[in-house]
């Protein structure tokens, strides 16, 4: 049924109608959205805004409505509503809406800004804000239309940089209009001063250009854009980057060449210039240029018809002036470098004249805008090569132009200039000469005169001088220059002819004078002498002619005639005629006319124009008159401040004893002058001598020590330092100097004397004799040398030889005195010898005479000589010879005599001697006569300063007075300046035994044959030596016999401290058991000790242990005082000491004791000793047995003090004992039962007395070191109160075995002894010292 329902229309028709309806609806529906519909309407109105606001309330986030509404607000001027809409648009989180909001704000702000009046103060601030907004907007992405709108807006607010950036983005985003946008970029970049941006724009246009001309135009514009901004280096870099296609383009190369010149890039200038000219391989052709010289000179000699030449930097030349135009008026032109203007496409460089600067100055050129540059390619190349310092190619260009235009003075001048700059000075000189000869340009001749002397081209120089002299015939300087040039060329005759050709009217005298001088130089002496004599006759008051005549006569050997000529003209000479008086003085000195020389020198001084050389000659002339020589030297120093003059002034004033002048002269020196003078060893030497003469020896020593370290120090300075060190230096200083100069070569005899003295000061006489023997050939007849030689021999231990030498000297002195009195030939020779001696030698001779008289004559004679010496102060009171003057009070010099000194304030100062020799001799005389108080007074009166008092006498007095503080001070301060013997003795006295031993050892090394030194070494080394000792002694004392062995060792732990150990062992037995029994076979003991010993005192502590009948410990303490004084004392206290009063006590007993002793030495020969010992006796079990007091005394007399020291002794002994104790069982076992009851009296000795008389020698040898084997003996007779009289004998032999040891064999026998029985000892002992 359904299928049969009728249809209104067919299906296809229904479908067709539906399609039509849809198409119709599509066609009538509005397109583009709300924005396009609203913008397509006419001007906005309030109705459209109300409509949009209504829609916005319905759809608040509709972006189209917001955009359209914001635009209509702006068009209606509702700026606040537009900003509100912009804020809502910016709040929507899409980039498109944020950009739309920013554009809306920019539109609003732009309208408001331009709505402000031009004079509104807020307009500039609003524009600035708007530029900032545009700069921020330029960082976002925009469409082409938006970019164009923003670029236009930026341009409207003068934000050219932003506009340029936006147009650059347009050029990238809009390829269709890229060329347009790039031009806009260039335009605004230029407006903004962004020259790099503009250039980039041009280079982009170049890249897109299709034709070569367009590319070249864009490239050049880009280069000029950078050049407009003075970005010359960037422009050159851009040319390298973008200009490869124009490497051979003429127009481009011209632009680039000017650019390189403006950029001061000589390398690029050279490159572009070579590319422009095709001179890549160009080299200078000096030979071609030199070949032009002859051609130019030939063309200058004739007038060939030539056309006119026109030059860019010179005047026009007519047919006959082509080679004479020059560049007058252009010599002062300067070069100014100017960058080409970018706004003038046709800018190039024009030529300017090059400055005629010296060859040492750098060549320069300039470029100015012009249109003729491209037409003058040679000039441009020349300037370019100059600016690039490519002088060889510049010279090549100039050479080629001269070859093409030989009549061109401009190119001739340019070639001369560039050749000079290119160090082709010979070519430059020839070109300047050709230029000057062709143009007669004074500047050309000036350059010839400048270069010719430097190149020694006297021919060219002579041509210029003759031209100048012809121009100024009255100029004598030019005449002299011409003559000098002729002489340099070896043409004196031509010079004479030139002088003869000069005018002879008003200049006749000058020309004749020059002819005379030239004839003299040319060897025409006769002609010269004739002219000079003629002038001398015509003008007698002119001393110059007399000088010339005298000079010629001098050369011919006629000295007297020369001096006579000068003396004849002397009446017309004035003090100001310095040369006249100088020559007169020299001739007078040559002829030994000292009176004339002295008069001439007076005139020289009066003139005030004496040169330093004149004053130096005067100083030498007045050498025999120290006061005059010193004054002339001082004046020379005032004139030229020369160190040599200062040294000579001080030296001569010192010889003249004018010490106040030296002090004043030194005070005038500024610190800078003094510092400079102290760098000269010569100055330090003469000042040191001044210091020495004025009793400032340590200042003198300081100066000499500095002087020898300076450059230029001579051997004489070393000698002076050594002499001063010998007198005042320390031992260390002297040793250092000796170590450096001891090996002086045989060719340096000046050092032999001081080296010998130094060796003697260091107590090495053998070494000193080596140097003295070197002097013997030259000085063997000098008495002072002979006495020094004798002193060295005496120090070396050869006293007899020294005595004989002194005796010969004394005899010779006596013979000379007698010969002088008798006025014999020998006396005259001796008198001449004395006159030739200086002051110090005379002082030494007078002093040595006193010393020798004290040895070989009686005391009255030596005292008389001493009085003479003191009266004259060793000759120093006579100042007449040192202060005599020949000049007198000459003008210009200090006065000859200074104001008299004020009298001394005290008699002590008036009596003070100045001669050190006189002081030393007087002191030595006093000391030799044992007048120490007199010597002390002399020291106090004669020496104002303690530092300069003689150390020898001071130490001798201190030793004699036993003044230990004085000795210590002298040892510390004077050191090696003290005599060695006294140093050793003083070191011993002040408890420096180690130092004394070292001194003795070192002294013995230098003088191995000095027995006195050997004795002192023995005394210092062996008085208290450290050693290893061994002793074996056999005792026969019936009923007890024993053999005692000891072994000991000691070592010093310091100078004054020693420690040691002694071991003792006795092998004993009883020979009579009825008297003594139960004796231990061995008795052993060991003792340790420590001892402190000084020169006058000693202290000893001993502790030990003994194993005998029983075992026990022992201890003792001892002290001694006055060991080396006339009165000495000793005190000792001991406990459990060995008791030797009886045989039983020795075996089984011991004692406590106190011992005191006193020794008094009245003289070296007579002495007395007393000893008191208080004892308490005990058994070895410490049981008291008894007590006693032993008193002894001795009086002795030594017949001799040296070995054999025969001695007579008288002794006395008294022992008072009391047996007040009890014997214990331990000691009682030693007595046999058969002997009866044992009591304390059995062991304690009985009271007894002894006295006796003894004679012997060498008693100390048993323990005292002796090198030779020597016997010793002591014999006598003794009386005992119990035993009566009995003999006593002791003898032995002692000596050394290996050298550093001591051995002794001895025997003694006492018929009467304190033991009550005879005692016999036989033993040997040995000590090894180390």
From TrEMBL:
The portions of this protein that span the membrane are 12-29
Where does the PelB C-terminal domain start and stop, copy by copy? 1023-1329
Q: Which domain of life is it from?
A: Bacteria
Q: Which keywords accompany this UniProt record?
A: Membrane, Transmembrane, Transmembrane helix
- In this chain, composition skew of type Low complexity spans 825-834
- Please indicate if the UniProt record lists Lyase as a keyword: no
Q: Does the keyword Cell cycle apply?
A: no
> Which Pfam families does the record associate with it?
B-barrel_PelB_C (PF24604), TPR_15 (PF13429)
- Chain intervals for the UniProt region annotation (Disordered): 822-841, 885-911
The name of this protein is PelB C-terminal domain-containing protein
Q: From what organism does this protein derive?
A: Paraburkholderia domus
